[in-house]
Write a structure and sequence with these properties.
CATH topology of the domain at 1-50 and 140-194 and 286-347 in chain B: Rossmann fold
Order of helices and strands of chain A: EHEHHEEHEHEEHEEEEEHEEEH
CATH superfamily of chain A: NAD(P)-binding Rossmann-like Domain
Distance between the termini of chain A: 15 Å
Largest interface: A-B, 38 and 37 residues
Strand content of chain B: 25-35%
Oligomer: heterodimer
CATH class of chain A: Alpha Beta
Largest sheet of chain A: 9 strands, mixed
Number of helices of chain B: 10
CATH class of the domain at 1-50 and 140-194 and 286-347 in chain B: Alpha Beta
Number of strands of chain B: 15
Strand content of chain A: 25-35%
EC number (chain B): 1.4.3.3
Helix content of chain A: 25-40%
Protein name (chain B): D-amino-acid oxidase
Structural class of chain B: alpha/beta
Binding site for FAD (chain B): 44-45, 49-51, 164, 312-317
CATH topology of chain A: Rossmann fold
Number of domains of chain A: 1
Radius of gyration of chain A: 21 Å
Shape of chain B: globular
Number of helices of chain A: 8
CATH architecture of chain A: 3-Layer(aba) Sandwich
Distance between the termini of chain B: 26 Å
Keywords (chain B): Cell projection, Cytoplasm, FAD, Flavoprotein, Oxidoreductase, Peroxisome, Phosphoprotein, S-nitrosylation, Secreted, Synapse
Shape of chain A: elongated
GO biological process, one term (chain B): D-serine catabolic process
């Protein structure tokens, strides 16, 4: 197989980063990205893009840690380079505060982020309703810039990108040798995954350029994440809600909760309300599969179900998916050489 | 009781506000006037980035360390007030970088979360092998000075755009007490060979992805003669110039290149930053801050002067502690004049 043809379905964070890893892992591959949406209209564009991992209940911790470490290392290098501003990657320091004792004193990712330590008494005094806290420095990926930067890197490798809604993976079997499913929430319909469910998140993106630190409530519901141009205020975690329409009452509630953590936000200007649906699952599905229909085989690599933690693990899962694509190619090459005998 | 403040930088305005806040109700005859040849945005304080950070060493000057602490604690207390944004006050974290281990600074317990840098953090800054991380405050002059001005105007304090040539000038007009907050030009009012310019130059850029201050130190070249990057609310300040004895307020092409090259080496992403301005200013440097009373007798004119100048590159850092001290000196003047039976204000 001289030049395996790989189709990547999905052009959000996972689709683009997976496509890029495939081009890096398999330079002879011809990669095409197919998606009904591209940045700035993907679900990923709504996210703040903070590297603070979400814990997947059914993925082994060492695997999540490996994914996070690879992602952090990759982005750390970009943040330190001349490309940082174009890619929208930057370091940000701040605080995670808890009203009641956190489940774990030391989360699995504490030695990967920078300078992780408990907050001092003086720091906690800023949060009279909270009794515990963690201080650290991590990375943030601003979208659309990061997605657009990934698209630019892909185009430089010769990867084609087409706007196309794929209704069924079998549509692709004639044109492509391998299909990579990075459809996020779309996988529910595309491959009938009933374990996938949306967790609705509403956020406000505001102009408040004096906010330089992130503040996050350990319950994950209230957060203030300063981006390059806008600060993301959040949020909600509404399990099972498919609604993409902003809710005015929710907007008021998010604003109030964030102002109680950072009163100066009262002066925030130019409030934009956005809604995203986290493509959630008990464990991220990074897996290869061979679909079979009427004697025809279609190798598929799945990479979806990242829920609230996509940005934190994207590069790690993309690397793993690219590796699985490599395995698919070996199998195809093996069987094609067998066919020759 | 006429009080004239000379100077409308951070020192003049904050001293005036402190005195008015503490004495106006106790002294109904108090008339406060501010005289300056430059007002915001044309003062030295307006050019400063606004980062609260004292020099590395206090040289045993405990008084200045206490004034710095008073200022930080006061500002921290203002953070959650609705005025914070208007004041140009906000929290900021960042890095101090060194090429060798150094002792902890006098202010390590004043700022929040002071700690040494980890090896991984140092990877961000090739060439630097030691450093500190802490969370401090920004107080942007471009917002703070107008805020102070508004508070003063609301209180009926009068402003005069006038260059005062001598203390006599004011005493002969009936002023009782002069607050000398004339910064770099104090020498014009009364010779002071200890007051020297510490010339600085800065480049203003748009680099909104930079969220931390980064101050490098070269122990051989001295304070602020090593690149620094300080992100403000509207633009980021690049600097690294401290020229003792240089009175020029003209931007130098050589200094521009030095700042640009060294800051881009420190933060490669800055190469893509758009330059939106450049500025030179003179830090009013002195071995220690001059904050003291002086009785001036000139012929049949007599008056009290409270000197409050010589804050070098840490004016914003120390301003409130000095303003409170100036107010205490004012209280002692009033006591001496039997204007007050007991000194007012908080007992420290």
């Amino acid at each position: 197989m001289a030049s395996p043809k790989v189709a990547v379905v999905g052009a959000g964070l996972i689709g683009l980063s997976t496509a890029l890893c495939i081009t890096e892992n398999c330079p002879s591959c011809s990669v095409t990205v197919l998606s009904d949406q591209f940045s700035p209209n993907t679900m990923s564009d709504v996210a703040a893009g903070m590297l603070i991992p979400h814990t997947y209940p059914d993925t082994p911790i060492h695997r999540q840690k490996q994914w996070f470490k690879e992602t952090f290392t990759y982005l750390f290098a970009i943040s330190n380079s001349a490309e940082a501003s174009e890619a929208g990657i930057h370091l940000v320091s701040g605080w995670q505060v808890f009203k009641s004792p956190p489940k774990e004193e030391l989360p699995f990712w504490s030695d990967i982020v920078l300078g992780f330590r408990p907050m001092s008494k003086a720091e906690l005094q800023r949060f009279p309703q909270h009794r515990f806290g963690q201080a650290f420095t991590t990375l943030k990926c601003d979208c659309p810039p990061y997605l657009l930067w990934l698209e630019k890197r892909l185009k430089a490798t010769g990867t084609q990108m087409y706007t196309r809604k794929v209704e069924d993976l079998w549509e692709l079997h004639r044109e492509y040798d391998i299909v990579v499913n990075c459809a996020g929430l779309g996988a529910q319909q595309l491959v009938g995954d009933k374990e996938l469910f949306p967790v609705r998140g509403q956020v406000l993106k505001v102009h408040a350029p004096w906010v330089k630190l992130f503040i996050r409530d350990g319950d994950g519901l209230t957060y203030i994440y300063p981006g390059v141009h806008r600060v993301t205020l959040g949020g909600t975690r509404e399990k099972g809600s498919w609604s993409l329409s902003p809710d005015a009452g929710t907007t008021r509630d998010i604003f109030d909760r964030c102002c109680s953590l950072e009163p100066s936000l009262q002066g925030a200007q130019d409030i934009e309300v956005k809604v995203g649906l986290r493509p959630s699952r008990q464990c991220v599905r990074v897996q290869r599969e061979v679909l079979s229909q009427g004697g025809v085989k279609l190798p598929v690599v799945h990479n979806y179900g990242h829920g609230a933690g996509g940005f934190s693990v994207h590069r790690g899962t993309a690397n793993e998916a690219a590796h699985l694509v490599g395995e698919c190619i070996s199998v195809l090459q093996g069987s094609s050489s067998r066919a020759k005998l | 009781m006429r009080v004239a403040v000379i100077g409308a930088g951070v020192i003049g305005l904050s001293s005036a506000l402190c005195i008015h806040e503490q004495f106006h109700s106790l002294l109904p005859s108090l008339q406060l006037e501010i005289y300056a040849d430059h007002f915001t945005p044309h003062t030295t304080s307006d050019g400063a980035a606004g980062l609260w950070q004292p020099y590395l060493s206090d040289h045993g000057n405990l008084q200045e360390t206490l004034w710095n602490k008073e200022t930080f604690d006061y500002l921290l207390g203002q953070l959650h007030s609705p005025a914070a944004k208007e004041m140009g006050l906000f929290l900021i974290s960042g890095y101090n970088l060194f090429t060798e281990p150094v002792p902890d600074p006098s202010w390590k317990n004043i700022v929040l979360g002071f700690r040494n840098l980890t090896p991984k953090e140092l990877e961000l800054f090739p060439g630097y092998s030691y450093g500190w991380f802490n969370t401090a405050l920004m107080l942007e002059g471009r917002s703070y000075l107008p805020w102070l001005t508004n508070r003063l105007m609301q209180r009926g304090v009068k402003f005069f755009h006038k260059k005062v040539e001598s203390f006599q000038e004011l005493f002969s007009q009936g002023v009782d007490v002069v607050l000398n907050c004339s910064g770099m030009r104090a020498g014009n009012l009364q010779p002071d060979p200890e007051l020297q310019p510490g010339r600085g130059q800065i480049i203003k850029v748009l680099a909104p992805w930079v969220k931390h201050f980064i101050i490098t130190h070269n122990l051989k070249s001295g304070i602020y003669n090593s690149p620094y990057v300080i992100p403000g609310s509207e633009f980021t300040v690049l600097g690294g110039i401290y020229q003792h004895g240089n009175w020029s307020e003209e931007n130098s092409a050589k200094d521009h290149k030095s700042i640009w090259d060294s800051c881009c080496r420190l933060l490669p992403a800055l190469q893509k930053a758009k330059i939106v301005g450049e500025w030179s200013g003179l830090r009013p440097a002195r071995p220690s801050v001059r904050l003291e009373r002086e009785s001036i007798r000139l012929g049949n004119l007599q008056g009290e002067v409270i000197h409050n100048y010589g804050h070098g590159g840490f004016g914003i850092t120390i301003h409130w502690g000095c303003a409170m001290a100036a107010a205490r000196l004012f209280g002692s003047i009033l006591q001496d004049k039997r204007q007050l039976s007991t000194p007012p204000g908080p007992r420290l």
